[in-house]
């Protein structure tokens, strides 16, 4: 790694040097030569990763802002990764969502990094596993990962986080039924945000009834916490629920599952490294003048 762009960055990173952390994340994000060696040399870290996910408009960013305030007030260092949706055409993203956390950008105990999802279907960045490990090595007490607003099948955050917080609002109603196949199963903690709205108590009651069967197969009861993130109400109860989940720790079965999910993601990424959507579009465009068979086209890449 002597000639690598990572040279001289590891020790400052482990000391919590913010500029070195930013540089390392950029290098990992862009897959520069030496990335694999750099990641393999990172020491193991017990820093907990907390995933914040849920439908669009549920107030995830405002809730993250409240969590930052709580932990910073308690003297903790907090790292935050915020993943924003990308354009399906140029993979760029408008990272304007961060305005809700603007007071923390220059705070010495807080580091916030916005990432574009770059078309990833799971509501996360393609290199989120690697970037999260870089964050964990930088000496934070907590690492928060806020995902793109997700649907029922886009639940990759569960394979990344030690504690997954699913945020919903009282108006969700029948949407909860459609979420059962995905988000309902991955939550360690449910947050009913904007709980000052009408029918919030009835919604919480119905949600707890819906979750009841899951209690039998879980190591712990899934907490349902009411918050009004805009006023930072209920944040103390939420942090208590998160702490309870983290203190229980992962069973060997869940830990194996988490690591298998990460390994699958990384192996899949390596296997697909020499392919890009742009290359596929170009190859297809050149064949469209003739009779095009999708399955014959795909076979040449699968057998390669």
Automatic annotation (TrEMBL):
GTP-binding keyword on record: yes
Keywords per UniProt: Chaperone, GTP-binding, Hydrolase, Nucleotide-binding
Signal peptide: none
GO molecular function: GTP binding; GTPase activity
Domain of life: Bacteria
UniProt cross-references to CDD domains, sorted A to Z: MMAA-like (cd03114)
Similarity field: Belongs to the SIMIBI class G3E GTPase family. ArgK/MeaB subfamily.
Protein name in the entry: Methylmalonyl Co-A mutase-associated GTPase MeaB
Originating organism: Phnomibacter ginsenosidimutans
């Amino acid at each position: 790694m002597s000639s690598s762009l990572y040279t001289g960055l590891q020790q400052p990173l482990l000391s919590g040097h913010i500029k070195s952390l930013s540089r390392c994340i950029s290098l990992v994000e862009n897959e520069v030569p030496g990335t694999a060696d750099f990641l393999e040399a990172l020491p193991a870290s017990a820093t907990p990763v907390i995933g914040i996910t849920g439908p669009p408009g549920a107030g995830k960013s405002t809730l993250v802002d409240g969590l930052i305030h709580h932990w910073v007030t308690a003297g903790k260092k907090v790292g935050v990764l915020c993943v924003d949706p990308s354009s399906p055409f140029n993979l760029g993203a408008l990272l304007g969502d961060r305005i809700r956390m603007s007071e923390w950008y220059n705070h010495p105990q807080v580091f916030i990094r916005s990432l574009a999802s770059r078309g990833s279907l799971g509501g996360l960045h393609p290199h989120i596993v690697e970037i999260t490990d870089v964050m964990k090595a930088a000496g934070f007490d907590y690492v928060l990962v806020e995902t793109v607003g997700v649907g029922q099948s886009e639940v990759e955050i569960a394979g990344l986080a030690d504690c997954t917080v699913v945020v919903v609002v009282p108006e969700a109603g029948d949407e909860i039924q459609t979420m059962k196949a995905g988000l309902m199963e991955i939550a360690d903690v449910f947050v009913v945000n904007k709980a000052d709205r009408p029918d919030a108590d009835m919604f919480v009651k119905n949600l707890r009834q819906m979750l009841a069967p899951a209690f039998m197969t879980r190591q712990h009861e899934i907490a349902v916490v009411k918050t009004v993130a805009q006023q930072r109400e209920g944040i103390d109860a939420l942090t208590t629920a998160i702490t309870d989940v983290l203190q229980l720790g992962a069973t060997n079965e869940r830990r194996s599952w988490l690591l298998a999910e990460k390994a699958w993601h990384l192996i899949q990424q390596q296997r697909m490294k020499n392919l890009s959507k742009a290359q596929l579009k170009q190859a297809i465009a050149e064949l469209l003048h003739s009779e095009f068979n999708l399955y014959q086209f795909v076979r040449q890449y699968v057998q390669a």
